[in-house]
Design a protein that fits this description.
The complex is a heterotrimer of chains A (158), B (363) and C (177). Chain A has one domain: Rossmann fold. Chain A has five helices and four strands; from the N terminus they run αβαβαβαβα. Chain C is rod-shaped and about 120 Å long. The chains are: A alpha/beta (158), B mainly alpha (363), C alpha+beta (177).
Chain lengths: 158, 363, 177
């Protein structure tokens, strides 16, 4: 009992901290949001401050940043990328297209998946078209807080 | 050949330190010592160098680098390691061939912990050929890495494996010649002799005592980069054209093992470069003799290891900054460079060293 | 000497020298960045969550398009924004209000997950109640949290009866002062 509590409280926290502070990411760059991810990774808004390193291979990534339109044709491949990532894995949906189809929603286009959460589970949604780099970092911090199990003030626009 | 010099080795230190240690068999003491060296020197060095590497490349790009994990981001390597250890593979991805060859690769690598020279009293294997052991280990490592790549059954694995082997072959020749140059200067390939040929003064360091030795030093360091596929000569593991090569299939624990192994190869090579070319562990101001007279052998050991590691870190930082400002070479450029530039200069250094050292003996 | 073995060796040595010169040059170029010497070589990173070194919402340009906000007190419920929205992210429902010449905006929902921040709705808004704020941080864990509601809510039957009574009262007061 006692040792279990110790594990959950201390070691578990340490492991969660490690997961939250070393989110190596891979991104499906197919849109203008991908440019903002590049911006965020560049010198001006340095994503590496958070321990995020871009990875070429989904096997070595912990975070999948989905940017841009996901068409029905590309959906199986996105699912394959997600499946190739070893757990624990996280997904950040970036921008209107990834959130819900955006301006390519089913009302306008026959070929676009209305939101990436129809295919893979999404941890954090970031609004914007495209979001500012600060907004991407805000989503990243939200994800870190989610991994750490901290409570977060509810989002309010007003 | 005496594998364990009785009075001067750290085994004797350990055996004399307590009754319990004296009761243990020598092989167990040696194994414990190696585990201690790995855990207390190599792993922390890996963490420090990974942090400094990231901060240095961040500085070169006018950005900050990791600064959110711990004070000034200093716990970033720990976070990365703990995260990699937590990754889980699904059972469908379990590849026993990969595990086997990763094991061979890792064993070939860490067998060199036994020959790594860290101080005048921390020499486990000090034979008349011990300076060549890292070279053979590096070749076995290349073989293990190549077969590791083949076992993955993927295009990056195949190409990466072949490239690793090609680079190791290309780099081994000039590096070998460079070691021979230093051996000609010192007279023998024993660690203690190679280090004993130099004193604390930089002018007596092998690399700086004559121009041919300096060429040999540069060739040795660059040949090591080619041989072990360390940036910027890491075409075998490049992410752009072959998707990370052998490392593309590895993740989680296997990736951490692989990356640590790559770091260890680089670290070993730098330590050896410092030992045979840059003055080894000889402490300045006659400190070693002074402390030995006072009987503080442990302090001498610690100071010598610290001084050697300090020089090693400087050399590694120099190589890393060289890597961060130069583009990564293509694999044909790297092997070309090794065969067509490093090898002729290595031979030049060999001839020059032979003449320089043998001048007095010539008729 | 051209074409002889000596010129070949000379070219080879020149080539090697040039390579090492180039690497040395790039090393020297990079060194001042270590200490940030000079105006061009300082760190340019904005450390985002830190309000001192990063730009906050107030530092953004005047016409930057952040999340939409609606001042419901000025909104007339004309639904121009709903009509022009290219992604149908705005949904407006109106009813007759207390004063029957005005509309009661019962529902004014903006779905930020769909919004593409084009600014068309702001341009057509006559009372200028719908504006872009400078807020841009809106990360959520659930997609439904991205819907912002600005409406006043649907009118209940009691409220409607009360309003009718008030109107009747006002009418009576006007006719027989």
């Amino acid at each position: 009992m006692k040792s279990g509590a110790f594990y959950v409280s201390t070691v578990g926290k340490l492991l969660k901290w490690a997961r939250a502070n070393s989110l190596w990411y891979t991104t499906t760059g197919s849109s203008c949001c991908a440019d903002e991810v590049l911006n965020a990774a560049g010198s001006r808004y340095d994503l590496e401050r958070f321990g995020c390193i871009p990875q070429v291979d989904p096997r070595q990534a912990d975070l999948l940043i989905v940017t841009g339109v996901v068409s029905y044709k590309v959906a199986p491949h996105l699912k394959a990328v997600y499946d190739a990532m070893p757990s624990p894995k996280h997904v950040l949906a970036l921008g209107a297209c990834a959130n819900c189809g955006g301006m390519f929603a089913p009302e306008y286009s026959y070929s676009v998946v209305p939101g990436v959460d129809r295919i893979i589970p999404v941890d954090v949604y970031v609004p914007g078209c495209p979001p500012r780099p600060e907004s991407i970092m805000n989503g990243l911090i939200a994800l870190q807080e989610k991994i750490n199990g901290n409570s977060r003030p509810h989002f309010k626009a007003q | 050949m005496s594998a364990l010099p009785p009075e001067n080795s750290w085994i004797a230190f350990l055996a004399n330190s307590s009754d319990l240690a004296a009761a243990l068999p020598t092989w167990l003491l040696a194994a414990l010592g190696l585990v201690f060296i790995y855990g207390a020197i190599i792993l922390p060095s890996g963490a420090i160098m990974s942090y400094l590497d990231r901060k240095l490349s961040a500085d070169f790009q006018a950005r900050v680098g990791p600064n959110r994990a711990g004070p000034a981001g200093m716990l970033q390597p720990l976070a990365d390691l703990l995260k990699l250890l937590q990754k889980e593979a699904s059972s469908a991805e379990w590849n026993w061939r990969e595990a086997l060859w990763l094991g061979v690769h890792t064993m070939a690598l860490y067998s060199t912990v036994a020959v790594i020279p860290l101080s005048s009293s921390a020499l486990l294997v000090n034979t008349d050929m011990s300076a060549f052991l890292p070279l053979w280990a590096a070749l076995v490592l290349a073989l293990g890495t190549m077969l590791l790549g083949f076992s993955q059954g993927s295009v990056p694995g195949w190409f990466g494996g072949v490239r690793v082997a090609a680079q190791a072959l290309a780099g081994a020749f000039p590096a070998l010649i460079a070691v021979i140059c230093a051996g000609i200067h010192a007279g023998e390939f024993r660690w203690s002799t190679l280090a004993g040929a130099q004193t604390a003064s930089p002018l007596t360091w092998t690399a700086l005592c004559d121009p041919f030795q300096f060429i040999a030093f540069v060739v040795f360091v660059l040949g090591g980069l080619v041989m072990l596929a360390v940036p910027p000569m890491d075409a075998a593991l490049s992410t752009q054209d072959i998707h990370g090569g052998v490392s593309s299939h590895l993740f989680g624990r296997r990736l951490s093992l692989f990356r640590l192994g790559r770091f260890y190869g680089f670290f070993l090579w730098s330590v050896i470069a410092v030992v045979i070319f840059l003055g080894a562990w000889t402490l300045p101001f006659g400190l070693a003799e002074l402390l030995r007279e006072q009987g503080r052998l442990w302090l001498v050991l610690a100071l010598e290891v610290g001084w050697l590691l300090a020089k090693t870190f400087v050399l590694m930082l120099l190589v890393i900054s060289f890597a961060r400002v130069s583009p990564r070479g293509r694999v044909d450029q790297v092997t070309d460079f090794s065969w067509k530039v490093l090898s002729p200069f290595a031979l030049l250094a060999l001839i020059g060293t032979a003449l320089w050292s043998g001048w007095g003996y010539l008729p | 000497m051209r074409g002889s073995v000596f010129s070949a060796i000379r070219e080879y040595l020149q080539d090697v020298y040039r390579r090492f010169q180039s690497i040395w040059g790039s090393l020297i170029t990079a060194v001042p960045y270590l200490w940030g010497v000079g105006e061009q070589r300082k760190e340019v990173t904005e450390q985002y969550p830190d309000p001192v070194s990063s730009r906050t919402a107030d530092d953004l340009p005047a016409r930057s398009r952040g999340l939409l906000v609606n001042d419901i007190d000025r909104c007339t419920g004309c639904k121009e924004c709903e009509k022009i929205c290219p992604v149908q992210c705005i949904r407006v429902d109106t009813e007759a209000g207390a004063d029957q010449s005005k509309l009661w905006v019962a529902r004014f929902d903006i779905d930020y997950s769909k919004c593409v921040f084009c600014g068309l709705c702001v341009e057509v808004c006559h009372p200028q109640s719908l504006v872009h704020s400078k807020k841009f941080e809106g990360s959520v864990y659930e997609l439904k949290d991205l819907v912002a509601s600005f409406g006043r809510g649907f009118v209940t039957a009691e409220q409607r009866a009360k309003w009718a009574a008030m109107r009747q009262q006002a009418e009576n007061d006007e006719v027989f002062p």
